[in-house]
Automatic annotation (TrEMBL):
TM region(s), chain numbering: none
Pfam families reported in the protein's UniProt record: ABC_tran (PF00005), ABC_tran_Xtn (PF12848)
Molecular function in Gene Ontology: ATP binding; ATP hydrolysis activity; DNA binding
Gene3D superfamilies (UniProt xref): P-loop containing nucleotide triphosphate hydrolases
InterPro entries linked: AAA+_ATPase (IPR003593), ABC_tran_Xtn (IPR032781), ABC_transporter-like_ATP-bd (IPR003439), ABC_transporter-like_CS (IPR017871), ABCF_ATPase (IPR051309), P-loop_NTPase (IPR027417)
UniProt keyword Manganese present: no
UniProt-recorded name of the protein: ATP-binding cassette domain-containing protein
PANTHER family in the record: ABC TRANSPORTER ATP-BINDING SUBUNIT (PTHR42855), ABC TRANSPORTER DOMAIN-CONTAINING PROTEIN (PTHR42855:SF1)
Lineage: Bacteria, Bacillati, Actinomycetota, Actinomycetes, Micrococcales
Keywords, ordered alphabetically: ATP-binding, Coiled coil, Nucleotide-binding
Low complexity composition-biased segments: 532-546
Domain ABC transporter: 5-223, 284-515
Residue segments, region Disordered: 511-546
Coiled-coil stretches noted in the UniProt entry, renumbered to this chain: 549-583
UniProt organism field: Agromyces agglutinans
Length: 618
């Protein structure tokens, strides 16, 4: 396995602390590394050091000659006046990128809703971020460093990115290092994990799930070691008091298998007990949406229907995740539940005991406390908060809740406005929970939180007995804290017994080959879909019309599907060649001939793709 780059004894200090001390690590061909750790511990800094964007105070980073390194930084921006097309494929001839299946896949996966001839400055923040990611992925890199690439991607986009990165290089080639709080993504893509903490980088084998098991075992061994050390020190102190010479011994620890760590653990939640508590607190009725619909005025006249004929009876103790693309109507649906949105048809029935609270994205709950210290905010709340029930009930003070959510005693004296984004998010959740609502709505709760804090919040929600409604693009969180999922598709609310996987299948079935369709529109210059609204001049009239045009579009979509299948066959053929006995020249020749045939088929299809595109372009 060839070595690509390495860091030797890296040392980096900021004015207030040491970020890294004597860190040595490396990336080899085939490495797929996820980087985790608390916010502020240096994950993004590590990427910048390895990519050469930041110089260490001591130590060095060495890169093998000829290696091409690409990086997506959180601070990376595209010049606002640049056209999207120029930002993504600028400098590449159209017939080159349009005939490249990889480029068409990237455009369809990330930029299906982005005007191809629009200005970057006219896009939303999320769209600009996706343009930057697409521009990076279009390039040919040996090593990719990605800092929070899943930000601004929905569940569908995250699933696409995971599949793209898994098939981007042949097995055993290329290297990837990614910083993300999306734990499903880490498990899906990464084969190794680096944990950044206390000035060091600690490696673990496997993705997020394997990392958690190994970390639990590490902490258990550390606790056992510390207990034995303390016991040993007490004995040594007794010997010293008697004047005996000091004696030491090196304890050895038994390492249990990871499965033994969790075999006696109870389920994360007791649904029967939580439902019983929820019913006693809420009564039988929560919120019922009965044939509800919502319409908004359209800017060009008339109305736009967002939701139609929604039937949803929310039960006490229900834990539901809501899925849907941006603009599908998720916020509108939650607005019907809270009463913030006015319906245009049907009716909403609310129980008399319902108390709804929303963890919003705007941190509005903290605005009035901006200049107050955290301790003052906590002191203004109720004295205690009870989680669990019966013999399992635990009464916590607000201070203990803060500690459970990762606040240190020193941070209690910090003004709210000086807290980090993640700390504000946790304080916001605390203030809401202390109001003791019985219906809690979480709107993108994972913003600004690292994996440890997400786990802490999930642990807190496990013992919360109310009704929970969650809107999030974080697949791991949805599957972790909710028991069922619904999706908004074409204005209707649909139950998903198969969960997120079923939602992705429905989206694929509904859009057909979204990659092929999006790439077709881009390469054919269909300005109806991609012309910037501010661009003057009519689109060129297509040469084909009616049935001929539909037939050409169908052929183009079919070619896209065939190209994707052939590319997968070529990758499989390369793997066969790599595994085959290298001394068997006859067998290698047969496999080589098969590979040449597949590549010839790809060339023929790409030629035909260009011909049909030209017909559609006129």
């Amino acid at each position: 396995m060839a070595h690509l780059l390495g860091a030797e004894r890296l040392h980096l200090e900021f004015p207030t602390r040491t970020v890294f001390d004597e860190v040595t690590l490396g990336l080899d061909e085939g490495d797929r590394v996820g980087i985790v750790g608390r916010n502020g511990d240096g994950k993004s800094t590590l990427l910048k050091l390895l990519a050469g964007r930041l110089e260490p105070d001591a130590g060095r980073v060495t890169v093998r000659r000829g290696i091409r390194i690409g990086m997506l930084d959180q601070a990376d921006t595209v010049e606002p006046s640049t056209l999207v097309a120029d930002a993504v494929v600028g400098g590449i001839e159209e017939h080159v990128w349009a005939g490249d299946p990889k480029v068409r896949d990237i455009l369809g996966g990330l930029l299906a809703d982005v005007p191809w001839q629009g200005r970057v400055g006219d896009l939303s923040g999320g769209q600009r971020r996706r343009v930057g990611l697409a521009a990076l992925l279009v390039g040919d890199w040996d090593v990719l460093f990605l800092d929070e690439p899943t930000n601004h991607l929905d569940v569908e986009g995250i699933a696409w990115l995971a599949q793209h990165l898994k098939r981007r290089w042949a097995q055993g080639q290329g290297a990837l290092a990614v910083v993300t709080h999306d734990r499903w993504f880490l498990d899906e893509v990464c084969t190794d994990t680096w944990e950044v903490h206390d000035g060091i980088v600690e490696p673990f084998e496997g993705g997020y799930a394997a990392y958690v098991l190994q970390r639990v075992e590490r902490d258990r061994m550390a606790a056992a070691s510390e207990a034995k050390r303390q016991n040993l020190m007490r004995k040594e102190l007794a010997w010293l008091r008697r004047g005996a010479p000091a004696r030491t011994s090196k304890p050895k620890f038994r390492i249990d298998a990871a499965t033994q760590l969790i075999e006696n653990e109870p389920p994360v939640r007791d649904p029967v007990e939580l439902n019983r508590l929820a019913v006693s607190r809420l009564g039988k009725d929560v919120v019922d949406l009965l044939g509800t619909g919502v319409e908004y005025p359209h800017p060009e006249g008339g109305t736009r229907t967002v939701l139609r004929d929604v039937e949803w009876r929310i039960a006490p103790g229900e834990r539901t995740g809501i899925l849907g693309v941006n603009g599908a109507g998720k916020s509108t649906l939650l607005g019907l539940v809270t009463g913030a949105v006015k319906l245009t048809s049907g009716r909403v029935k609310r129980g008399s005991t319902v108390r709804i609270a929303t963890l919003s994205q705007e941190l509005a709950e903290l605005a009035e406390w901006a200049d107050e210290r955290v301790s003052a905010v906590v002191a203004a709340q109720q004295r205690s908060y009870t989680i669990g029930s019966g013999s399992k009930a635990v009464e916590l003070t607000p201070g203990q809740l803060l500690e459970r959510l990762g606040f240190s005693s020193q941070q209690l004296a910090t003004p709210v406005k000086q807290l980090s984004g993640g700390q504000k998010r946790r304080l916001q959740l605390l203030l809401i929970l202390l109001q003791e609502p019985n219906v809690l709505i979480l709107d993108e709760p994972t913003n600004d939180l690292d994996t440890d804090m997400l786990a802490a919040i999930e642990d807190l929600l496990d013992s919360w007995p109310g009704t929970l409604l969650v809107v999030s693009h974080d697949r791991y969180l949805l599957e972790r804290v909710t028991d069922q999922q619904y999706a908004i598709l074409d204005g209707h609310l649909r139950h998903l017994p198969g969960g997120v996987d079923q939602y992705l299948e429905l989206r694929r079935a509904g859009e057909g080959s979204r990659t092929g369709a999006a790439a077709t529109r881009r390469s054919s210059g269909d300005e109806r879909a991609y012309r910037d609204p501010g661009t003057a001049g009519p689109a060129a009239a297509p040469a084909l019309a009616g049935a001929d045009r539909r037939a050409a579009e169908k052929e183009l979509a079919a070619i896209d599907r065939k190209l994707e299948k052939l590319q997968a066959d070529i990758r499989a053929q390369h793997e066969k060649l790599a595994r085959h006995d290298q001394s068997d020249y006859v067998g290698l020749g047969v496999l080589g001939d098969e590979l040449a045939g597949l590549e010839a088929s790809v060339a023929d299809l790409e030629t035909r793709w260009l011909e049909v595109s030209e017909l559609l372009e006129g």
